[in-house]
Amino acid sequence: MNPKNVSNTALALAKLRCGDGRLFATLVGAALGKQLLVAQDFANLCWALAVADQRQLSAAVVELCRRLAGQCWGGTVLENYLVSGKTTTSCTRCTCGC
Fold first, then answer.
1. Please, what is the angle between helix 3-16 and helix 21-32, to 10°?
2. pLDDT by residue (tens digit) across 13-70?
3. Which end of the chain has fewer CB atoms < 10 Å from its terminal CB, N or C?
C-alpha cells in the first residue's frame, strides 16, 4: 500500500465506524514504514485515528509527525543553509505544500 492508500483506508474505516485497534495499529505501522508521507495523508490519518478514538496510537502519530517535519520544510531549510548559506520559505523536496 502506498501512503495515500493507507490514509484513505483509515479514513474509510473511521467514517464507517468499523475496525478495531489492531487494524488501525497495522495502518499506522504501514505509514511508519513509508518513506514519504505527505502532509495531506498525515492529516487524514490523524483525523481517522481521532474519530476512531485510537488514543493508544498517539506515540506512533508523534513519530510520524517528527518524520514529516524532518522530510519537509525543516530538513529542506537545513540542507539549503548547509549547501548555500541561504534559507528558503518553501519546500522543494515533497508535495506537502509547506
1. 160
2. 999 998 889 999 999 999 888 766 677 888 888 889 888 989 898 888 888 877 777 6
3. N
Per-residue confidence (pLDDT) for residue 25, from 0 to 100: 93
Least Cα distance to 28 among 83, 56, 79, 70 occurs for 56
Reduced DSSP (H G I as helix, E B as strand, rest coil) percent helix, strand, coil of the chain, to 5: 70, 0, 30
φ/ψ region of 20 (left if φ > 0, alpha if ψ in -120 to 50, else beta) reads beta
Half-sphere exposure at residue 3, Cβ-oriented, CA atoms within 13 angstroms:
20
Q: pTM for this one?
A: 0.65
* Helix (H) or strand (E) run with residue 78 in it: helix 73-84
CB contact at 8 A, 13 and 52: yes
